[in-house]
Amino acid sequence: QVRLMESGAGPVQPGGSLTLSCTASGSISRINHMGWYRQSPGKQRELVAVITSSDTTNYADSVKGRFTIFRDNADNSVKLQMNSLKPDDTAVYYCNAGVTLRIGVRSAYWGQGTQVTVSS
User: Fold this and answer.
1) Which residues of 51-66 are buried (b: 16+ CB within 10 A; e: fewer)?
2) What does the pLDDT profile of the chain (120 residues) look like in tens digits?
């Protein structure tokens, strides 16, 4: 079983910064990609940022230039550095990982979600 543990969220004022962390554990042969999604009330879950095993990154237009995703292959973790936060960034943030469990077997997993609130 693969588990994703998230940390680092909380309340922050507009213009502030937060760093979200996510660590994958379990019987993982290879992590193919890891990323962050978010969902606010009444809206669909949306991609925030993703990074592949070759360090290719992709960001939502709304966070480009403000958020940075980076990974540490040594401990199967990914971090999302969020700067210049806006009230519109308020949402539940979910870690996602696409992994190879063994040869020919791939699966995707989600964290439990962590609340980010940007408010004065």
Assistant:
1) beeeeeeebeeebeee
2) 899 999 998 899 999 999 999 999 999 999 999 999 999 999 999 999 999 999 999 999 999 999 999 998 778 999 999 999 999 999 999 999 999 998 889 999 999 999 999 999
**Residue 46 · residue 54 · CB < 8 Å:** no
Task: Look at the block and give the residue holding tokens 């502030």.
Answer: 16
Give dist(CA 99, CA 32) in Å, integer.
Answer: 5
For 67-75, the CB contacts below 8 A with 24+ separation are 69/35, 69/36, 71/34, 73/31, 75/23
Got the DSSP string for 98-114?
EEEEETTEEEEEE---E
